[in-house]
Amino acid sequence: MPRLDETKEFIPVRIALLTVSDTRDLTQDRSGDVLAGRIEAAGHILADRMIVRDERDQIAAHLREWVARPEIDVVISTGGTGLTGRDVTVEAHRDVYEKEIDAFGTVFTTVSMQKIGTSAVQSRATGGVAGGTYLFALPGSPGACKDAWDEILCHQFDYRHLPCNFVEIMPRLDEHQRRK
Asked: Can you give the pTM of this predicted structure?
């Protein structure tokens, strides 16, 4: 299970939160609050936070804007990952990804199965990389956000996590864009 190399120093990452909703504002954003609290409690930096409507073009545009900002290392969205007609967050993320982190959805489903059984098949949680920035789309429920953070993301965003983690490869995410 999770192991930490206590000889390494913790490196905080800068995380932006995007809630996708047609009905919520920041005062009603329970899932965003869950993630913001966990991000800050873990010692990371909440770099930005906002709510955007369930519109594919708007979501993708905002993801691209944050990817272009060097002060943001990670973007986590919550909401819009289900199966209904208005759920377009996954498609918006995939419009932006350069590479998809296929195993993220698989691991998230495995974690969800332990909590909600076969209802886990209704989630399309996804992760990817664009412009040297990690992007993750989580379901809109507070429980799903807790599970994704507590069981996966908090470990992968801890530089001390063994045997490997997302933080240690951050400097190389955009190496293909640099001239040698």
From this structure: 0.94
